[in-house]
Amino acid sequence: STMPPLLSAIANAGRHGVLAKSAVVMERLGRVDTVALDKTGTLTEGTPRLTDVVPLPAPSPTGKEEGVYGSDPDGRPKSGTDGRPGSGADARRRTGSGNGLGADRRPESGNGPAADRLLRLAASAEHGSEHPLARAIVGAALERGLVLSPADAFAATPGRGVAATVDGHRIEVGAPARLLPDGAHAGPARELEEAGKTVVAVVLDGRPAGLLAVADRLRPGAAGTVAALTRLTGRAPALLTGDNERAAQHVAERVGITDVRAGLLPGEKAAAVREWEAAGRRVLVVGDGVNDAPALAAAHCGVAMGRTGSDLALETADAVVVRDELAAVPAVVALSRAAHRLVV
Ligand code: ADP
Ligand code: MG
Predict the structure, then answer these.
(1) Element (H, E) at 210
(2) ipTM tops 0.85
(3) Where is the composition biased (Basic and acidic residues) (predicted)?
(4) Which atom of ligand 1 is nearest to the CA of 200?
(5) In the chain, what are the domain boundaries?
(6) pTM of the shown model
């Protein structure tokens, strides 16, 4: 061919399913020596399904269950309660076992009226979010035939969650560690997380209302991709995720990653990348979410997953995986190295 080597490298990358935004990107891809991978939507398929709906009854001074799941059909917390979340012990007693998720509340068993109400409120609040978790929650609600309410004052915070007003109630959906900072209901959440699930807490008018869990599948070939990147760079990739430590470890163990950094906000992902860069490393970040955009921008080279990728991630990245195969990433790194050897 008469094409200059770098242009032919771009063409070759295209054949492998990667769209590089410039020839310079191809050079950079060939020079990376450190890889940081996002979890949700990058190592996993990014189309999680809702697996568990766990309403959390609020304690009351009278000993009767109150709040959304008590006798008040409108679910408005009654005045006269202290507004505090139930203790872990309380949640355990009420769910009928020592581990907080007794046989009477097995995963997938959350389909009573309280579960439907919890799911309907959460889905109504999540409707405006493009996050994979939001899509799982809204999809499950619609599958159950629940009718969503419009959300007012909707706000999404990348890496944290959403908040909105639904049917006059303030609803927050997000990471339990941030929404339930006093550790309330940590037991039930932990059990779900140990199964590799992502758990979000639902807070209603400032009180813990329940937990929702979703599970995502590993991408086929994720372990092979990690192995290929390890061979190419001489060190195993790191995992950067906003998700919880236990779900992160669950995925990391299956793909051969030991350097796991979980619970990161978008700025903290970028800070990890800048630290490596400051130590002289050239970092390749692969991600898909709005929450990955700062890390993609901070990296020597940022690659976004095209199918699951948010608009912001696609705009910020230097290259986009358009064929939705993670294996394209090590393939283009190898290609770029070969092309680079041609021109230097
Ligand atoms: P990841 O790095 O795995 O792609 P994110 O940074 O997007 O994850 O999200 C981190 C955590 O923030 C999630 O596990 C969840 O607890 C919370 N979160 C983010 N967006 C939402 C949302 N739309 N609804 C509920 N929780 C969310
Ligand atoms: Mg992601």
Answers:
(1) strand 207-215
(2) yes
(3) 63-81
(4) 16
(5) 5-46+217-343, 49-215
(6) 0.79
